[in-house]
Structure formats: C-alpha cells, structure tokens
Sequence to fold (24 residues):
Amino acid sequence: DFVGSASGAVVLTALIVFLSSVLV
Fold:
C-alpha cells in the first residue's frame, strides 16, 4: 500500500544518506 511504500522509501533514503556521510 501507499503507507508501506512511503515508509520504505524514507528508510531507503535515510540509509543512502547515512552511507554517503560515512563514505565521504
């Protein structure tokens, strides 16, 4: 559903930002 995919996108975005800040 929309809520599940939205929360999944938020988690994925947060994970990418976290990895970017760690790697850089």
Q: What stands out?
A: The CA atoms of residues 2 and 8 lie 10 Å apart. The two ends are 34 Å apart (CA to CA).
